[in-house]
Amino acid sequence: MSLTLDENRATYQIRAFRPGYIQVNELQLTCSIIISPNKLITDWQPQSIDELTHDHLQCIIPLKPAVLLIGTGTTMSFPPLEIYGDLINQGIGVEIMDTSAACRTYNALTAEDRNVMAALIIK
């Protein structure tokens, strides 16, 4: 087996996820978060996909990621377009998936030095 060195330069990397728990670097979190390679927001309000509103995602627009991953919790659930449509209109790609898949995708994209953010719902 051939091993390669992980050269992910992101300041914030997801180390573990399970429903109700996300580990970012050595920080153990039990709340929903927004994460980018250089920014971590731990006081993000929606704790389930049913609580997600348009206003919860407005803080993403000024940060201008190329893509936002929305982790919808333990199962994939598409929120109404009205909640995230402003992001698309601003040229931000939006990908919706369950939170476990969003964590894996975030790590893969940051390893490629991509301009990505993830809004991860914990439950």
From the structure above, extract its key features.
2 helices, 123 residues, 8 strands, five-stranded mixed β-sheet, alpha/beta, three-stranded antiparallel β-sheet
Task: Give a verbal description of the structure.
With about 120 residues, the chain is an alpha/beta fold. The protein is about 20% helix and about 30% strand. The chain is built from 2 helices and 8 strands; from the N terminus they run ββββββαβαβ. The strands form 2 sheets. A 5-stranded mixed sheet has the order 5-4-8-6-7, with helices on both faces. The protein has a 3-stranded antiparallel sheet with strand order 1-2-3, covered by helices on one side. It is globular, with a radius of gyration of 14 Å. The chain starts with 13 loop residues before the first strand and ends with a strand.
Compile the SSE list and pairings:
Blueprint: E1 14-18, E2 21-24, E3 27-29, E4 33-36, E5 39-41, E6 67-71, H1 81-89, E7 93-97, H2 99-111, E8 116-120
Parallel strand pairs: 6-7, 6-8
Antiparallel strand pairs: 1-2, 2-3, 4-5, 4-8
